[in-house]
Amino acid sequence: MKINRLFYYAASLIAVLFLSPVMSHAWDGYDYDSGSYVEIEEGNLVRPGQDIEVYDYGTGEYKDMEVQSIHSYGSSTEVEVYDYDSGEYRTLDME
């Protein structure tokens, strides 16, 4: 009986550990070029060359952008993107 309980707890722990990375959240940050807060919605693959959808709190709109580069600095990450709407490059400082 004790072995079954131990097996149940171990299986539960393993399931939680493997399923946790699947759960993703939005990524908050600040756009220094527009001076507003932004959010990269969950489900976006933030890699150079990939298109992402960003919510701009300054305009209240979603914008499609292409990731140009990613640089990590301590606890923050700088994401350089090309904004299809404005035709400009922007720098997002993500936390």
What are the SSEs and their pairings?
Elements lengths: L1 H18 L7 E5 L4 E5 L10 E6 L4 E13 L2 E8 L4 E7 L1
Concise structural overview:
The protein has one helix at residues 2-19; strands spanning 27-31, 36-40, 51-56, 61-73, 76-83, 88-94. Helix content is 19%, strand content 46%.
The separation of the N and C termini measures 47 Å
Strand tally is 6
Q: Figure out the total of helices.
A: 1
Q: Which radius of gyration do the C-alpha atoms yield?
A: 19 Å
On the 0 to 100 scale, the average pLDDT is: 85
Shape: elongated
Elements, N to C (H/E): HEEEEEE
Number of domains: 1
Characterise this structure.
This protein has 95 residues and is of the alpha+beta class. The chain has one domain (25-94). 19% of the residues lie in helices and 46% in strands. It contains one helix and six strands, in the order αββββββ. It has one helix at 2-19; strands spanning 27-31, 36-40, 51-56, 61-73, 76-83, 88-94. A six-stranded antiparallel β-barrel has the order 1-2-3-4-5-6. β4 and β5 form a beta hairpin. The longest helix has 18 residues, at 2-19. The protein is elongated and about 65 Å long. Mean pLDDT is 85; it is low at 19-23.
Key phrases:
95 residues; alpha+beta; 1 helix; 6 strands; elongated
